[in-house]
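The records we work with from here on pair a chain with its fold. Here is one such record, which you should read through line by line:
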Amino acid sequence: MALLVTTLHGLSRTYLDEVGSELIRGYPEAVAISYRRTGDAQSPITCRVTDAMGLVSDDIVEMRHDCLSCLVREHTYEELRRLDQRGVWTHALVSLPPGVDASAFPQLAEAFQEDEADDFTMSISSCIVVCDAVLLQDQLENPTLLRDWDLSVVATDERSVGEVVARYVEFADVIVTVNTHRLRSESECAFQEVIAQLNPDALVCEFERIGAVAPAQLWSAGFDLDHPRRQSPITSEYIPSQTPLAQHVNKVIWRGDRPLHPLRYSRILDEDLIDVFRSRGNLWFATHVTSQIGWESVGELCSLAIIQPWNHTVTGAENYLIMVGHDLDALAIQDALNGCLLTDAEMSEGIDAWKSLEDPFADALRTMFIEEGE
């Protein structure tokens, strides 16, 4: 029988520990693995294993290479194998260090499980993310790099706080909220709307009420690594549901069936799209007409990269963006984006002419992050 595994993520080690302890309380079939940093990304980490009865083991894991994320996911797999051999537990909770990408361990586990020679079988059953209701909005718009918070996983980590928090929320099957009681009613509504717009599929529950949720909803939420919302870049296969009662935060979905003029697109980022705090999708730049370009933005930061050629011919190409922000004017945003598409006259000039268009993103396509509007 495969060992079921739930992963637990968040930016606060304190809240991760509290939620983890509550999850395994009174659940004798579960064991929890929790990692804690002892310093920067190059320092050893601790691996603490507990169950409903108390401490199982507490070890130091030395850094074997320069990537904390790689070390943790490899060590986790071997630790799960060891624990499974004891035949005591049917479910494991893995609490990963803040900053480790939510997809890191599931991707490794899937690759290892494809090895037919491996007699250890496990299955990711759910991903739980802990969100601070008071800090979420500020964190989403925070351009500070993880390394400035001592949360980087490698010395060259260029990810921002906002990017990691957004990806945590979007990746989750279950979102456990803390400090919800500290919000005023209007702020609580806005917080709920942010969660609902970023991940309408997630089960959301307050930490104080976690005991009232059926264990199967938390531990076995039907995790699917290939779900379209977990893909990067996100594609038009994922059509998120709208939140009809949203009053403060809303979502705009845009499609364009012509190439984008990159200069016109760059100009609207800090004008028509100024209230967008999260966007994901793929773009079709006239200057890279045969390439699919993945696009993500969080707060003031955006990233873009050439992902792959369009399937078969450019006739199947498109622009697709999902944008979340405060009181977004859907019609105005869609009109602004439509205005970035090539005109009939520009279309008639052909691909060779498009390659010579001014492109502010030409250098950015060779890097990870740029400031929007630069």
Q: What stands out?
A: Residues 138 and 162 are 8 Å apart (CA to CA). The chain has a mean pLDDT of 87.
